[in-house]
């Protein structure tokens, strides 16, 4: 769903505008290359997600020369009740970068809201470089506008702290110390037991939060909570960049092209070429695309990742 950093930025901007348009409140979010999670207080969840998905799909399809629906028809949702359930669910949303192996702590992943809370107490105050008002339209969905009291950083991102209800979230965690504890807490039986004791309702778990996310490995996510780094693994964004910038030009000739302008057969052939090149580099050989040698050296990839980044299922 998000092939580039710019896509992730636009994804958040589409969510932010949907929050404003539906008079909802956003408490936390995390954007992964294949999906996003959001924790919202709203009376119109279906309308909020419809607006977000429609605006982003139009942007994505135009940029990548694609047609049709993006992602599943239905958006998975989970309602929570009680302060302990709320805190647990919100913590899982904020820790997406950690659980998906994209950072060693929740704070190391940029495309989530983990860093907007308790900023003064955690020494994270900053003054972002803002984008001039006349350029803001470049980073918004077609036909949308942003009220001037909401700021946009120089990279086009609507400032998370302007959209997210940080005051409400800080009340949920009560203290900066507890917030840090929850961000670093290990998922265990005690976490589930505390929720059951609160109101007798089923506990929020990592399984429940990630329900429907393809290829999500719960056991791997739990190992990552213990600080098991995976620095050698190519991220999906890195693989997409390799495909789009290094391999696609060899298929293009001239004219506009993306993976979506290739046939299924062409994409399958491209997947085979990339896999062979990665294996050659891993074994000390010379790849078909010479530029790939430096990009693949010492890095881990998989057949499923290559196919995913080529929209081959």
Give a topology summary.
Blueprint: H1 5-21, E1 25-31, E2 36-41, H2 45-63, H3 83-94, H4 96-99, H5 160-163, H6 166-173, H7 176-184, H8 189-199, H9 206-209, H10 218-225, H11 236-247, H12 249-252, H13 264-282, H14 292-296, H15 303-309
Antiparallel strand pairs: 1-2
Helix pairs in contact: 1-2, 3-8, 11-15
Mean pLDDT: 92
Sheet with the most strands? 2 strands, antiparallel
What structural category do the secondary elements indicate? mainly alpha
How far is the N terminus from the C terminus?
Answer: 14 Å
What's the helical proportion of residues?
40-55%
- Strand content bin: under 5%
Number of helices: 15
Into how many domains do the coordinates divide?
2
User: What's the gyration radius in Å?
Assistant: 21 Å
Give the strand tally. Answer: 2
Instruction: Return the string of H and E elements.
Output: HEEHHHHHHHHHHHHHH
Query: What is the overall shape?
Result: globular
As residue ranges, the low-confidence spans are none
User: Strands of the biggest beta sheet: in what spatial order?
Assistant: 1-2
Walk me through what this model shows.
By secondary structure, the protein is mainly alpha-helical. It folds into two domains: 5-225, no CATH class; 236-309, no CATH class. 46% of the residues lie in helices and 4% in strands. It has helices spanning 5-21, 45-63, 83-94, 96-99, 160-163, 166-173, 176-184, 189-199, 206-209, 218-225, 236-247, 249-252, 264-282, 292-296, 303-309; strands at 25-31, 36-41. Helix 1 packs antiparallel against helix 2 (45-63) and helix 11 crosses helix 15. The radius of gyration is 21 Å and the shape is globular. The model has no long low-confidence stretch (mean pLDDT 92).
